[in-house]
Write a structure and sequence with these properties.
The chain is mainly α and 46 residues long. The protein is built from 1 helix and no strands. The longest helix is centred in the middle third of the chain and has 38 residues. It is rod-shaped. The model has no long low-confidence stretch (mean pLDDT 78).
């Protein structure tokens, strides 16, 4: 199989997008865990 030049940018783009999605999901997870921590801290007065 010889490399398909036209297909490469698409693969790179897809890789970038999935990385971006993963970063967004991670950011959301941190955001929600921060909210939960705040709620728990308020409830238990820690």
């Amino acid at each position: 199989m010889k490399p398909c030049i036209t297909g490469e940018p698409t693969q790179i783009l897809t890789k970038t997008q999935s990385t971006q999605n993963r970063a967004d999901k991670a950011r959301e997870a941190v955001f929600f865990s921060n909210i939960l921590t705040k709620i728990n801290t308020k409830e238990f007065g820690a």
